[in-house]
Write a structure and sequence with these properties.
Layout (H helix, E strand, L loop, with lengths): L12 H8 L4 E9 L10 E4 L5 E3 L5 E6 L5 E5 L6 E4 L4 E6 L6 H5 L5 H10 L1 H4 L5 E13 L2 E14 L11 E11 L10 E2 L3 H6 L12 H4 L2 E11 L2 E10 L8 E8 L5 E8 L4 H8 E3 L4 E17 L2 E17 L4 E16 L18 H4 L19 H13 L1
Parallel strand pairs: 1-7
Antiparallel strand pairs: 1-4, 2-3, 2-5, 5-6, 8-9, 8-19, 9-10, 11-16, 12-13, 13-14, 14-15, 15-17, 17-18, 18-19
């Protein structure tokens, strides 16, 4: 078994860190449901008065860093009141209070859900950035074979997003700033299926901007929309609209839920789940290629996309995809189940937008496995905001270290 080679994939991070002055201040904490004490996963955590952001992990834990002392953090999650917590030590405990909306408000949440969706689409140009922006993000992808992690890839990336008025997501570009991979070297763990992954597909899976995903005249006709009970994201009341396929299409369709800000009619959160009942259609959406003799059986492909309101503008904030599938090798008579999870969180916004050149662009068809290097230094991300590893992921990484 070959030894791990400690190599950092440094491309542009030097100039970025110089501009930030280094993220030398940090706060660690947990976010819990005040009524149950349970951890709240994927809660948004932001340094008050700054652009530095992250999300909590599956255990409700987070670490957030800044280039100046952190006096307070803002925390929000769907269904809870947003809160600002003063930082009195380097460890904080955040209790989120569930929102109970008044009956008077819930009783007037009505209307034609299809018309509300169309009106929200018409207001995209009013609710999202009018000018190009450079965003920094942290990206993690994991692959489990049955219940055992076999791959962990991570990257810090710079994302150049054009104006939402252009409606041209293909002009958005991503460049890797720094990356690493921790991967099992066992031959039987080698996954011979090339999955769509990496920070570029994650950053570009922006249904509000990329109308080809669902918000276009052709696709909308295939769906039935239904109004659900309202909820809050932070302190803002949301229309909640579910949808499902109503007719057949030449490609796989989605089921899902839309959260639309009642005041601005902006899409705040979008949950999608691919209809995998037609395996052929679903496979086209999930695979780039596979070896001959392998039968790919799609089980699930779901997405969560959050947008955060900041200074009157909604921006992409968090992306998560979950893909489950089986690989059946007929020749050797065995099958394995896999789960691939991709997460991306926007951690900072640059002062000015700088386009990414083609020579440095991470393409949608690139695979992070091919670009990153093996690196296990525990301080690898000390200068960056990341999604804190969950306890289960940390244990998996420890096991992978021992195997290698």
């Amino acid at each position: 078994m070959r030894k791990l080679i400690a190599i950092t994939a440094l491309m542009f991070c030097g100039s970025w860190l110089l501009a930030q002055g280094g993220l030398v201040f940090s706060v660690r904490g947990t976010v819990e449901d005040s009524s149950t004490g349970r951890p709240v996963a994927s809660a948004s955590v932001t340094v008050s008065g700054k652009n530095f952001s992250t999300v909590t992990n599956a255990d409700g834990s987070f670490v957030i860093k800044s280039d100046s002392p952190i006096d307070a953090v803002d925390v929000s999650h769907i269904g809870f009141k947003s809160t600002c917590v003063k930082v009195l030590s380097r460890d904080v405990r955040v209790l989120l209070v569930p929102v109970a909306y008044p009956l008077k408000e819930s009783s007037i949440i009505s209307g034609d859900p299809f018309e509300i969706v169309k009106n929200a689409m018409d207001k995209i140009k009013d609710n999202y950035p009018l000018h190009p922006e450079s965003l920094y993000c942290f990206y993690r992808e994991t692959v489990r074979k049955r219940h055992r992690y076999i791959t962990v890839n991570e990257a810090v990336a710079r994302v150049y997003k054009t104006s939402y008025t252009q409606g041209a997501s293909h002009q958005d570009r991503t460049a890797i700033e720094k990356s690493r991979v921790i991967i099992s070297q066992r031959r039987r763990d080698t996954l011979s299926v090339r999955m769509m992954g990496g920070p570029t597909p994650a950053a570009n899976f922006d249904p509000v901007k990329n109308e080809s995903i669902i918000f276009n005249a052709t696709d909308l006709q295939y769906y039935r929309f239904q109004m659900e009970s309202p909820t809050y994201i932070g302190d803002r009341l949301q229309f909640v609209i579910s949808f499902e396929p109503e007719s057949e299409a030449p490609y796989a369709l989605y089921r899902g839920t839309l959260f639309i800000d009642r005041e601005s009619l902006a899409f705040s959160r979008i949950e999608l789940s691919l209809d995998v009942s037609d395996r052929v259609k679903a496979t086209r959406m999930m695979l780039i290629k596979k070896p001959a003799g392998l039968r790919f059986i799609p089980k699930e492909l779901s997405y969560i996309v959050n947008y955060r309101l900041q200074n009157g503008v909604f921006r992409l904030d968090y992306f998560r995809s979950n893909m489950q599938f089986n690989c059946d090798w007929r020749k050797w008579g065995f099958a394995s189940s896999y789960t691939a999870v991709n997460e991306l969180v926007i951690t900072d916004i640059a002062e000015s937008a700088v386009p990414i050149q083609k020579s440095e662009m991470f393409r949608a068809t690139d695979i992070l496995d091919d670009k990153a290097f093996l690196f296990l230094d525990p301080d690898f991300w000390q200068d960056y905001n990341i999604i804190e590893p969950s306890e289960s992921l940390e244990n998996a990484v420890k096991r992978l270290k021992k195997q290698n």
